[in-house]
Design a protein that fits this description.
The chain is of the alpha+beta class and about 140 residues long. It has one helix and seven strands; from the N terminus they run αβββββββ. It has one helix spanning about 1-25, and strands at about 30-35, 40-45, 45-55, 55-65, 75-80, 90-95, 95-105. The strands form two sheets. Strands 1-6-7-5 form a four-stranded mixed β-sheet, with no helix packed on it. A three-stranded antiparallel β-sheet has the order 2-3-4, with no helix packed on it. The radius of gyration is 23 Å and the shape is globular. The relative contact order is 0.19.
Length: about 140
């Protein structure tokens, strides 16, 4: 009887450890941060994204158009239909370094998150040598 009891206790303990041990092997170097977008401004060299820093401040991020091309590989543009999901930015990091970004935008350009950069405004320099995305909080 003691043998049977010890075998069943051992089986329960080992069975309980299996998911924990399996979880250790599935750790990834990737993590992500989601940021709701206040406004997105399409520009000839990319996208200007404004988002909130704290309660009262807004921050701008400049995402070059090359990131969203097949050869750029640092960005993915995903258009949303109508619904409750608010446009947002998902930034992926690998081992603490910027990896890539996904930009979730409303397909309808009449949505309140779409804006326009006025004609004659030159912000080309903001898109020069942009290699990563550091979010401010």
């Amino acid at each position: 009887m003691k043998k049977l009891f010890m075998i069943s206790v051992l089986a329960v303990v080992l069975g309980g450890l299996a998911p924990v041990l399996a979880q250790e092997n599935n750790k990834s170097d990737f993590y992500y941060v989601n940021v709701p977008i206040d406004k997105v401004y399409p520009y000839r060299r990319g996208y200007v994204i404004t988002y909130r820093k704290g309660v009262t401040q807004q921050v701008r991020a400049y995402l070059p158009l090359e990131w969203f091309s097949d050869t750029g590989g640092k960005g993915e543009l995903i258009y949303q239909g109508t619904g409750a999901d608010w446009p947002h930015l998902t930034v992926y990091y690998k081992a603490g370094e910027f990896s890539h970004v996904r930009l979730y935008l409303r397909r309808d350009r009449g949505h309140e998150t779409w804006g326009n950069v006025p004609l004659g405004v030159d912000i080309d320099d903001k898109f020069d040598n942009v290699t990563d995305l550091k979010l401010e909080f």
